[in-house]
C-alpha cells in the first residue's frame, strides 16, 4: 500500500515538482500568541464556503429557477428527494454561519490591524468577498420564491432605487423590469449560481495565495519581542489539523441546526397578495434596514432614505480603505482611533440589529 | 296664449276691486281673488291640512297676503316667488317642516328630518335635467290638496301608496332614465302576493311599498343601509311579523324571526354577514311574497341546494312523501328554525330523523339503510380525523407534508359529497362516494405516519452522525496533542 502511494507521489512529483511545495509547507510557521484563536475564523469561513458550493451544486440538480416552478421544486426537494431536506437546510444554515464567520474574521483582522502593510490587498479582497457573500445571501433569499422573500426583495431593491442618478437603473437592472417578477428570479438565480461564484473564486484564490505568500500577520508589538521568545507552530500538520478540528465542530453545529431547526419554506409568493406582516431582511442587513427606518423622511433638503444609503456607502468605503488612511498602524504605532471606530461599529451593529427584531 | 293670460289678469283685477270693501280688506286677499276665479289650486287648498292649520298662500308663495292691490300682493320685492320650481318646491316645504319651532307652533308631531332624509335618499339624486332632484315633496304628497297621511284621501295613505309609487315605478320610459335594470312590474307581482291582495281588499295594515322600503329615506336595495338589504330584511319583515299584537287578526305565528335568527341561515346572514345565505325574500319572494306550499317547498330550497333537491326527486322518498302530502325538505330539516345539518340527523338512533318514519318493524329496509349510511359516514369522519392528526403532528415536527395536507381536502370533499348523497337514499351510490374518501384518508394517514417516522429517523441519524464527528474530533484533538508533545520532547532532548 505504502509503495503504491510512494510511486504515485513520485509520478506526480516528477511532473509538477511537489517537493518544492512540501518544502515550502514544512518551513511555514504560524505565530502562536493569545489572539491565535482568531486565525481559525478564516479557515471556518472557507470551510463553510466549500459546504455552500457542494450543497448548492446538489440543490441545482433539482431546483428550477422559474416563477412557476421555483417554489414547487424546493417543495419537491424537501419532501421527495432523498436527504433533500438536509441539503437545503444545511445550505441555508451554512449561508448564515458563513456570513457570521466572515464578520468575525473581518473584525478580528481589523482589531489586530492585520490589514496593515503589506497585507492591504488581502484586506481588500476579503472585504469584496464579504460584500459578495451578502450578495449571495440577498440573491439566494429570493430563490425559493416564497412570500417573505418576494416582499423582502421588493423592499431591498426599492432601497437600491433611491440612490440619486444611478438608483433607478440599478433597480431596473436588478429586477429585470420595474417590478419584482419572474424576470427578477431568473436574474437572481443567474447571479447566485454563475456571476457571484465566478468573481468570488477569483478573489478567494488571490486572498489564499496572499495568505500563503505573506504568512499569518502577527499582532502589533510582536516585532519587539526577541525571536527566541516568539512562539510558533508548524503550518503543516499542526495548524492544518487544528483547522480541521474547528471544521468538525462547525460541521456538528451545522448538522444539529439543520435537523432541529429545518429551514421553513413558507407560502408561495403571490404578487397580488398584500404584504405579510413582519417583513424583514436577513439578519446581516437588519442594522442598515433599522437605521433607514429611524432616519426622518427629510433631513434638510435630502431625502432621509437617500441620506442613509449614501452614509452607509461612504462608511463602507472608508472601512474598506482603512489600510490606506490608518498610517500609524503601518508604521507600527498604536492607534486608539481604530479601536474606537471598530468598537463603535460593533456596538452599532449589535444595537440596531437587536432593535430590528425587538421593535 | 298671451291673450288668455291678459284676460285672466283683467278678470282678476275686476274681481279684486269688486270684492274689496270700503271699510277694510279681507284677511287673505290671495284666496279671496283666486277662489272667486275658481282655479284648481285655490279650490283644492280649501280642504288642505295647511289651510286648516292657518297657513296662507303667501306662506309658501311669498308676497303680501293682505294687499288688496294685485301689483302689491305679488310684489317680488316683498318676497313673492310665484309657483316654486325644481328644488325650490321642497325648500319651501322644509321652511316649516325642517324647523322644529315652527312645527311646534302647529302642535305637529311630524318628524322634522324628512327633507334631509329625502335629499340623501335614492330619490334625492339629480334628475336627468341636472337642475333638480328626481323627487320633490309634491311628487308624492301633491301641492294644494294635502291631507294627513292617516286620511284615506292622502296619496300616501297605505291603500294609496302603491298607486303613488307606481306612477313612476311602473313607467318603463321614466325608469329607463334612472334605473333600467329595475323591473317595472312590481305592482303586478305585489297584487299576486298575500300583502297585495289584502291591500287591494282595503286592509291598510298589510305591507305596502313604504312598509319595507321606508318613505323619505328610501335607499337602493343594494345599499347596506337600506331596509331591503339582505342583512336588514329579516328585521324589516319582523317589524310586523314578530309583533304578536299587530298580527293577531291574521292568525299566523310570530316566532319566525326568532327561529330564523338561530337557524343556520340566520346565523350565516345576520352574524357572519354572509350574503349568500337566504333572507326571508329568497324563499317567500319579494313583491310577490307568498308562503311556499307543500308542493313548492323543495323547489324553493332546491334553488340553492340544487344537488340535494335533484337527488331527492329521483329517490324513492319522493313518491312516499307526495302520497303522504309531506313537505319534502321541511319534514326532516324544519323551516325557519333549520339548524346546521349534522350526521346526527342520519341513522336509526332515537335522535335521527329517519327513525321518525322507519323502525325495525315498520319500513325496515329504510331503517337498515339509514343505519349503514350512518356507520359509514362516522367511520369516514373518524379516519379523516386520524389522518388530520397525523398530518398536523408531522407539520409540528417541521416536516414538509403539504401534499398530504392538500389531499386531506379530498377526504373532506368526499365526506361532504356523501352527505349530499344521503338524499338519494341509495346505499350503493352512497358507498361509492364514501369508498373514495376512505381510500384517500388511508393514503394521507400513511403519508403522515411516514413523515413522523422520517422525523425520528432524522433524529437518530443526527445522533449517529454527531457521535461519529465527535469521536473523530476527539481523536484528532488527541493526535494533535500527541504530535505537539513529541515535538516539545524532541526540542528539549536536542
Please characterize this protein's 3D structure.
The complex is a heterodimer of chains A (359) and B (494). Chain A is 69% helix and 3% strand. Chain A has helices at residues 2-16, 18-27, 40-60, 70-79, 84-111, 120-142, 147-161, 167-175, 182-214, 235-260, 286-294, 304-320, 322-325, 327-330, 336-358; strands at residues 29-32, 231-234, 298-299, 302-303. In chain A, a hairpin with a 2-residue loop joins strand 3 (298-299) and strand 4 (302-303). The mean pLDDT of chain A is 91. Chain B is mainly alpha-helical. Chain B has helices spanning 2-19, 29-37, 40-45, 49-52, 57-61, 70-73, 87-97, 100-105, 114-120, 137-141, 158-169, 172-178, 186-192, 194-200, 209-213, 233-241, 244-247, 256-262, 264-271, 280-284, 297-302, 306-313, 316-324, 328-333, 364-396, 402-421, 427-493. Chain B has a domain at 342-451. Chain B starts with a helix and ends with a helix.
Features:
heterodimer; A: 359 residues; mainly alpha; Cytochrome Bc1 Complex, Chain C; two-stranded antiparallel sheet; 69% helix; B: 494 residues; 27 helices
Specify the biggest β-sheet of chain B: none
Distance between the termini of chain A: 64 Å
The low-confidence runs of chain A, each spanning 5 or more residues with pLDDT under 50, are: none
Structural class of chain A: mainly alpha
List unreliable stretches of 5+ residues of chain B. 11-26
Briefly say what this structure is.
Chain A has helices at residues 2-16, 18-27, 40-60, 70-79, 84-111, 120-142, 147-161, 167-175, 182-214, 235-260, 286-294, 304-320, 322-325, 327-330, 336-358, and strands spanning 29-32, 231-234, 298-299, 302-303.
Indicate the topology.
The complex is a heterodimer of chains A (359) and B (494).
Chain A: H1 2-16, H2 18-27, E1 29-32, H3 40-60, H4 70-79, H5 84-111, H6 120-142, H7 147-161, H8 167-175, H9 182-214, E2 231-234, H10 235-260, H11 286-294, E3 298-299, E4 302-303, H12 304-320, H13 322-325, H14 327-330, H15 336-358
Antiparallel strand pairs in A: 1-2, 3-4
Helix pairs in contact in A: 3-5, 3-10, 4-5, 5-6, 5-10, 6-7, 6-9, 7-8, 11-12, 11-15
Chain B: H1 2-19, H2 29-37, H3 40-45, H4 49-52, H5 57-61, H6 70-73, H7 87-97, H8 100-105, H9 114-120, H10 137-141, H11 158-169, H12 172-178, H13 186-192, H14 194-200, H15 209-213, H16 233-241, H17 244-247, H18 256-262, H19 264-271, H20 280-284, H21 297-302, H22 306-313, H23 316-324, H24 328-333, H25 364-396, H26 402-421, H27 427-493
Helix pairs in contact in B: 1-2, 13-14, 18-19, 25-26, 25-27, 26-27
Amino acid at each position: 500500500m505504502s509503495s503504491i502511494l510512494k510511486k504515485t507521489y513520485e509520478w506526480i512529483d516528477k511532473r509538477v515538482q511537489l517537493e518544492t511545495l512540501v518544502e515550502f509547507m514544512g518551513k511555514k510557521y504560524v505565530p502562536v500568541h493569545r489572539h491565535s484563536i482568531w486565525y481559525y475564523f478564516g479557515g471556518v469561513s472557507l470551510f463553510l464556503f466549500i459546504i455552500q458550493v457542494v450543497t448548492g451544486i446538489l440543490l441545482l440538480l433539482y431546483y428550477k429557477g422559474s416563477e412557476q416552478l421555483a417554489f414547487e421544486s424546493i417543495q419537491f426537494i424537501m419532501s421527495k428527494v432523498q436527504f433533500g431536506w438536509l441539503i437545503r437546510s444545511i445550505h441555508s444554515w451554512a449561508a448564515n454561519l458563513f456570513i457570521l464567520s466572515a464578520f468575525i474574521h473581518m473584525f478580528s483582522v481589523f482589531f489586530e490591524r492585520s490589514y496593515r502593510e503589506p497585507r492591504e490587498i488581502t484586506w481588500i479582497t476579503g472585504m469584496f468577498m464579504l460584500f459578495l457573500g451578502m450578495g449571495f445571501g440577498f440573491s439566494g433569499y429570493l430563490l425559493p420564491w416564497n412570500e417573505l422573500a418576494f416582499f423582502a426583495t421588493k423592499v431591498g431593491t426599492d432601497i437600491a432605487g433611491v440612490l440619486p442618478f444611478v438608483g433607478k437603473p440599478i433597480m431596473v437592472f436588478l429586477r429585470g423590469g420595474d417590478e419584482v417578477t419572474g424576470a427578477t428570479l431568473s436574474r437572481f438565480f443567474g447571479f447566485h449560481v454563475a456571476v457571484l461564484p465566478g468573481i468570488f473564486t477569483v478573489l478567494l484564490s488571490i486572498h489564499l495565495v496572499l495568505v500563503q505568500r505573506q504568512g499569518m500577520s502577527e499582532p502589533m508589538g510582536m516585532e519587539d519581542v526577541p525571536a527566541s521568545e516568539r512562539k510558533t507552530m508548524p503550518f503543516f500538520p499542526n495548524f492544518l489539523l487544528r483547522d480541521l478540528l474547528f471544521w468538525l465542530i462547525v460541521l456538528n453545529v451545522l448538522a444539529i441546526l439543520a435537523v432541529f431547526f429545518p429551514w421553513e419554506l413558507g407560502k408561495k409568493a403571490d404578487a397580488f397578495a398584500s404584504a405579510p406582516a413582519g417583513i424583514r431582511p436577513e439578519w446581516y442587513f437588519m442594522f442598515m434596514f433599522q437605521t433607514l427606518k429611524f432616519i426622518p423622511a427629510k433631513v434638510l433638503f435630502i431625502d432621509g432614505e437617500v441620506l442613509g444609503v449614501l452614509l452607509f456607502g461612504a462608511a463602507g468605503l472608508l472601512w474598506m480603505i482603512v489600510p490606506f488612511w490608518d498610517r500609524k498602524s503601518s508604521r507600527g504605532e498604536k492607534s486608539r482611533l481604530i479601536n474606537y471606530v471598530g468598537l463603535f461599529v460593533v456596538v452599532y451593529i449589535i444595537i440596531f440589529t437587536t432593535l430590528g427584531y425587538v421593535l | 296664449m298671451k291673450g288668455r293670460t291678459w284676460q285672466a289678469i283683467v278678470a282678476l283685477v275686476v274681481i279684486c276691486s269688486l270684492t274689496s270693501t270700503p271699510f277694510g280688506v279681507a284677511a287673505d286677499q290671495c284666496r279671496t281673488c283666486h277662489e272667486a276665479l275658481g282655479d284648481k289650486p285655490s279650490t283644492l287648498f280649501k280642504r288642505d291640512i295647511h289651510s286648516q292649520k292657518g297657513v296662507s298662500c303667501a306662506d309658501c308663495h311669498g308676497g303680501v297676503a293682505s294687499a288688496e292691490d294685485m301689483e302689491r300682493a305679488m310684489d317680488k320685492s316683498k318676497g313673492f316667488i310665484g309657483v316654486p320650481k325644481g328644488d325650490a318646491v321642497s325648500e319651501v316645504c322644509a321652511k316649516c317642516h325642517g324647523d322644529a319651532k315652527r312645527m311646534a307652533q302647529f302642535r305637529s308631531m311630524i318628524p322634522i328630518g324628512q327633507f334631509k332624509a329625502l335629499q340623501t335618499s335614492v330619490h334625492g339624486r339629480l334628475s336627468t335635467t341636472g337642475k333638480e332632484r328626481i323627487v320633490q315633496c309634491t311628487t308624492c304628497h301633491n301641492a294644494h290638496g294635502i291631507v294627513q297621511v292617516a286620511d284615506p284621501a292622502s296619496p300616501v295613505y297605505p291603500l294609496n301608496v302603491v298607486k303613488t309609487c307606481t306612477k313612476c315605478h311602473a313607467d318603463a320610459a321614466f325608469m329607463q332614465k334612472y334605473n333600467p335594470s329595475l323591473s317595472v312590474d312590481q305592482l303586478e307581482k305585489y297584487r299576486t302576493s298575500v300583502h297585495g291582495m289584502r291591500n287591494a281588499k282595503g286592509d291598510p295594515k298589510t305591507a305596502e311599498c313604504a312598509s319595507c322600503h321606508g318613505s323619505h329615506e328610501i335607499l337602493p336595495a343594494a345599499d347596506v343601509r337600506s331596509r331591503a338589504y339582505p342583512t336588514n330584511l329579516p328585521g324589516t319583515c319582523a317589524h310586523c311579523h314578530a309583533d304578536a299584537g299587530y298580527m293577531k287578526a291574521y292568525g299566523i305565528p310570530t316566532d319566525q324571526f326568532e327561529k330564523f335568527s338561530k337557524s343556520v341561515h340566520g346565523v350565516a346572514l345576520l352574524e357572519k354577514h354572509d350574503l349568500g345565505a337566504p333572507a326571508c325574500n329568497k324563499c317567500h319572494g319579494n313583491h310577490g311574497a307568498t308562503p311556499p306550499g307543500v308542493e313548492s317547498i323543495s323547489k324553493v330550497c332546491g334553488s340553492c341546494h340544487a344537488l340535494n333537491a335533484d337527488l331527492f326527486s329521483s329517490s324513492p322518498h319522493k313518491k312516499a312523501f307526495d302520497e303522504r302530502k309531506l313537505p319534502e325538505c321541511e319534514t326532516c330539516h324544519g323551516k325557519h328554525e333549520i339548524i346546521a345539518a349534522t350526521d346526527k340527523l342520519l341513522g336509526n338512533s332515537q335522535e335521527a330523523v329517519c327513525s321518525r318514519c322507519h323502525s325495525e318493524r315498520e319500513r325496515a329496509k329504510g331503517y337498515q339503510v339509514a343505519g349503514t349510511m350512518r356507520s359509514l359516514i362516522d367511520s369516514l369522519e373518524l379516519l379523516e380525523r386520524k389522518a388530520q392528526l397525523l398530518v398536523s403532528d408531522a407539520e409540528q415536527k417541521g416536516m414538509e407534508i403539504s401534499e398530504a395536507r392538500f389531499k386531506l381536502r379530498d377526504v373532506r370533499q368526499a365526506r361532504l359529497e356523501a352527505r349530499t348523497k344521503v338524499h338519494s337514499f341509495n346505499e350503493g351510490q352512497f358507498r361509492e362516494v364514501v369508498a373514495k374518501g376512505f381510500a384517500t384518508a388511508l393514503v394521507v394517514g400513511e403519508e403522515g405516519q411516514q413523515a413522523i417516522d422520517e422525523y425520528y429517523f432524522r433524529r437518530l441519524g443526527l445522533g449517529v452522525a454527531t457521535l461519529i464527528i465527535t469521536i473523530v474530533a476527539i481523536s484528532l484533538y488527541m493526535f494533535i496533542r500527541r504530535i505537539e508533545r513529541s515535538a516539545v520532547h524532541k526540542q528539549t532532548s536536542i
